[in-house]
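Lab notebook page, bench 4
Experiment: in silico fold of construct C2
Operator: M.H.
Input chain length: 315 residues
Purpose: comparison with the prior construct
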Amino acid sequence: MGGVLGLTTPALAQSWPTRPITVVVSQAAGNSPDVLCRIIVDKLGKALGQQFVVENRPGAANLIGTQTVARAAPDGYTFLFATSAALVTNPYTFKKLPYDPIKDFVPVATVARSNHVLLVNPEVKANTLAELIALEKQAPGSLSMAVDGPRNISGLIAQSINKQAGTGFVLVPYNTTTNAVQDSITGRIQVTIQSASVAEPFIAAKTLRPLAVAGSTRIASLPDVPAISETLKSVDLQGWFMFMAPAGTPPDIVQKLSFEVARAINSPEVQERAPTLGFDVRIGDAVTPAGAKQFLDAELANTGKVIQGLGIQPE
């Protein structure tokens, strides 16, 4: 962070911005990523003296919003609040994308991680992932797992568990998170994998019980819940969000926005609010353009290995 705040601002960026800036979110208004984005851009607007307008363009596996920014003028007035699905999952699950995550964008700053949580209905007789695996093996195919689709993060996590543990959890894809959670609470589905931002209110209400979080480490908001990697070391997938600019956006503008995003992330309000929304904003050097690029490249390679290892072919 210190290195970021010590940067000088080139001449072009000193005069930028001179008009409102649009930030496209490929998620619906009101959900946790949208809320986090709005908290951050509110701070950006105050710091830069211009209005930041959040434009929600959800749908089509993040394609609509992402494509919008890929085709926008690279003048520093349109940015993408990008999802990991758009940047590192879609390239391996679609035969043809209307954008190239590397060629069409410039990373500005990684904002937050959003780990997924494996949850069970309270009636399920398992208190750990190992116990859940053993329970499934006692009656193969008897436990169903609600996911958001076989090619999305929760579905990939579920398939990785099946492959590594030798289990046969039945994956049930849901179009909406609300229905997946509701069916898990009622017991129609025994297991579900949801983002921490979705899961935590139900954990607090004790209507769903967490067994493990995806990713290589535990998360700050659920410190007592083990990482899946503590049981199955090869399952390491997580969601995250990153500010991206259209390719060709002046580097000094990218640097200036990255600087202000870093300040916003490290503000007391964001540090306090983000965990309550299920996000981890301990980003480190990935908040810089160079660090974000390195992070993106590593995530793209890791996700590709996972998807290809599962034998999933693009469609």
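Observations: The chain is about 40% helix and 20% strand. The longest strand covers residues 105-114.
Next step: discuss at group meeting.
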